[in-house]
Amino acid sequence: MTGISSPDPLKFAFTVKSAPHAGRGGSHPLNLTPQQWQTWWTSPTSATQRALYIHLPFCRKRCSFCNFFENGSNPARISHYVDELSKQLYIASKTPFVQSGTFDTVYVGGGTPTDMQASEIAIIGEAIQAFPLAKDAEITLEGRINGFTHAKFNAALCSGFNRFSFGVQSFDTQVRLAAGRFDDRETLIERLQELSEHPSATIVADLIFGLPGQTMEIWQQDLQDVIQSGVHGVDLYQLIGLQGTRLSQQAEKKATNKQKQQTLAPAVDSQTRASMYAAGASLLESSNWQRLSSCHWRQDKRERSIYNSLAKSGIEILPFGAGAGGNIHGHGIMNARDLSHWHQAQSQATDTSIATDTLPSQVPGMIMSPNPSAALDSQFKAGLDSGVLALANFDTELVSHLMPLFSAWKTHGLVKISGKIMTQTLAGRFWNVNLQTGLFAYLKQNPFESCAIVAANKTP
């Protein structure tokens, strides 16, 4: 919860990053009937901000650090999926629920959405345009540089996409090869420079620090390369040891077979990753890049990172596609990943009394009850992720209730408190997810009864 006292909190306040994301319980699984599903799509939204998340669960290759690989990028399978997905988007776009409010941002993620053909990217883009979009809506296509041709870029631009997020991870050719990535350093830099010269499209790159074989020297060159590439924004993500990845499998083999130790790239420990984060923050900010969150910077104001920031604030997100997640009417939704089950749901009615041509199909997955503390938790997550928590936005009694935790963070060099503002130090930003997890654990052990209504009476 609090971290530990250390002369170097950046490296030693916690042992390791606790998880990719933080969250708190309070919901339980629900079985939604077809009638309830129909009510959802015929009732107006109560949300003031909304997003779409569209999932393309296909990749040509499984990267060493990824545990989300679902389906190989077979062209016929992608084409069939895009056809069914676009039909569902058009059906949903006409429902009273969708039409009752505008959408601020759209994110097409995966998987590798850029593995679609140019014509398929256009199909998805045009289906998105059927939704009531805000005038300046941010519409992101995620993917990789390899295979993202001029034809695909032009098809995306012409169909409404205005932001492109590429998983670079590292520019170093050898590190990329070991991680299962395509293309060498020179190819990446040249193509990113070319794309970034477009007068209006926003180009963003993701980098990962802590990859096997990625020394501090290589990481510093990665940072120089991303600046040289001309991209408008960059995410610096810490490598997390997720179960089910090729890296985790290698680590297990290393533990059981000493003879194979020399064939495995050395692990980058948490202290080195902390130094890498500090190096990244220092270089970007000294180069006049603006920090938007604990892990995201921009060098051009065209990069707004709307989806990422709003998603952390708990807005309504409509999910489409196998493996997509979001929330509708306050209910958390995670569509199941199994592609055959998703297709089966499109081809058969679950209840003949429901008109399936006027409602999107109810696909297999998990639906969770509304979390009574969701609004408050989202305020905390968004604030901590930005690096600044405005305590004045919360009930005075709640702040007093949390002050022992905040004071411990301050003592341990993770935050600074000045008046009604709590600002995270560099160490606090690096350990941001641990702070969020600690805050939720503190509230679980020390309940504050009026938490559920606090956020409703305050405007962040």
From TrEMBL:
Pfam families: Radical_SAM (PF04055). Residues 44-273 form the Radical SAM core domain. Signal peptide: none annotated. This is Coproporphyrinogen III oxidase. InterPro entries: Coproporphyrinogen-III_oxidase, Elp3/MiaA/NifB-like_rSAM, HutW, rSAM, rSAM_sf. GO terms for molecular function: 4 iron, 4 sulfur cluster binding; catalytic activity. Coiled coil: none annotated. It comes from the Bacteria. SMART domains: Elp3. One of its GO terms (biological process) is porphyrin-containing compound biosynthetic process. GO terms for cellular component: cytoplasm.
